[in-house]
Write a structure and sequence with these properties.
This protein has a domain at 25-81 and 161-260. Helix 1 (25-36) packs across helix 8 (161-192), helix 3 packs antiparallel against helix 9 and helix 4 packs antiparallel against helix 10. It has 261 residues and is mostly helical. The protein contains ten helices and no strands.
Length: 261
């Protein structure tokens, strides 16, 4: 299995057999952010670490963000030279050889397949909770909502990539904006002294409680690493993005920075 080392030509009118370069920087960013799904990560990935390290969850996620920053730097560097729809398959194959590319490609496919299954199940579970809690539909079956979501995802994936990336950016933007508003309200109450139970602003969350060791914090950081899964998504748009040697590396860096903050 051969993996080319040359970058795909940067032409607007794609040569025969190549994809069209029609995506811009923000649309490439949208794919990475959409795969990472920071809103889902904030809703789900903090529960298990809290059982391991208690109040030190932010510290564990900080370590994870630093680690992902270092890992993503390799993608940033490589995508400045290699622009290929194969993403990690092409990057690993071009630098480490065909066998490494073959393994990386199949592992990435397995990871994305697991992501899709998990995300569709999440839609069903969250959807049933919302419909039941809002009194719209009493105790609906989650599998039905998940199947509807799967069909919708298939339709979107089959459609125009520009529409999909813009939809991803819009949905995540609205969700993150709502969470930011909630965070601002919480901080305002805590700093203003009107928080429940007399809570006040402190940085103790970055100091593990007594009995919480480095191993526990490192283990909890794994959940933080999972929260960044998919940051490399923009690399797969190397043949569809304008000026990919500039836009793809910046898109990956911007997505990691945005979700890290």
């Amino acid at each position: 299995m051969a993996t080319g080392t040359a970058a795909i030509p940067h032409t607007e009118n794609a040569p025969r057999g190549h994809l069209r370069r029609e995506l811009r920087f923000w649309e490439a960013v949208a794919l990475s952010i959409g795969i990472m799904a920071p809103t889902a990560a904030m809703a789900l990935n903090g529960v298990a670490p809290a059982g391991l390290v208690g109040r030190a969850v932010p510290l564990a996620f900080l370590f994870a963000a630093i680690a992902i920053g270092l890992i993503s730097y390799s993608f940033v560097r490589l995508t400045r030279y290699f622009n290929h729809a194969g993403s990690t398959y092409a990057l690993a194959g071009a630098t480490l050889g065909p066998r490494a590319g073959f393994l990386a490609g199949w592992l990435l496919l397995a990871t994305y397949s697991a992501f899709i299954a998990a995300n569709i199940a999440e839609i069903g579970l969250f959807g049933t909770s919302f419909l039941d809690g809002a009194g719209i539909w009493s105790n609906p079956e989650w599998i039905g909502l998940s199947l509807i979501a799967a069909a919708l995802v298939w339709v979107l994936a089959y459609g125009d990539v520009k529409f999909v990336t813009r939809a991803l950016l819009s949905f995540e933007g609205i969700s993150v904006a709502a969470i930011v508003i909630l965070i601002v309200v919480i901080f305002a109450k805590v700093i203003g002294g009107s928080a429940p139970n007399g809570q006040h602003f402190t940085l103790d969350s970055f100091v593990p409680a007594s009995g919480v060791g480095v191993g526990a914090v490192a283990f909890a950081s794994v959940f933080g690493l999972l929260s960044f899964g998919g940051f490399e998504g923009a690399a797969a748009l190397g043949e569809e993005t304008n000026n990919p040697r500039r836009n793809i590396p910046f898109a990956i860096a911007a997505a990691v920075g945005f979700c890290g903050v």
